[in-house]
Amino acid sequence: MTSTSELVTFHHPFQLPGLDQPHPAGAFTVVTDREALDVSFPAFRVTTTIMLSDGRGTIEALQVARAALDEALARDQATSKAPS
């Protein structure tokens, strides 16, 4: 099992499926766990994607779908680039 960590930034409040409330804009650490597949070439399967949220003085580990996170980031980026 391997883990990777990345920092993602939302410039606007956002909502992800499965979360009970919108989150404020900010930077969030995303941790992705992968396991190696038993094949003759390097291949991995994502087992878990967790977003760490620092809210109300506590850190929450929120399990998220990577596709939903990528879509929310794309919407946020498109909103940031939209003419005002």
Task: Give a brief rundown of this model.
The protein contains 1 helix and 4 strands; from the N terminus they run E-E-E-E-H.
Structural notes for this entry:
Helices cover 19% and strands 45% of the residues. It is α+β, with helices and mostly antiparallel strands. It has one domain (2-76). A hairpin with a 7-residue loop joins strand 2 and strand 3. The longest helix is centred in the C-terminal third of the chain and has 16 residues, at 66-81. The model has no long low-confidence stretch (mean pLDDT 89).
Contiguous helical run count: 1
Please estimate the helix content. Answer: 10-25%
Order of strands, widest sheet? 1-2-3-4
Unreliable parts: none
Shape: globular
- Number of folding domains? 1
Order of helices and strands: EEEEH
From the helix content, strand content and strand pairing, which structural class follows?
A: alpha+beta
Strand content: over 45%
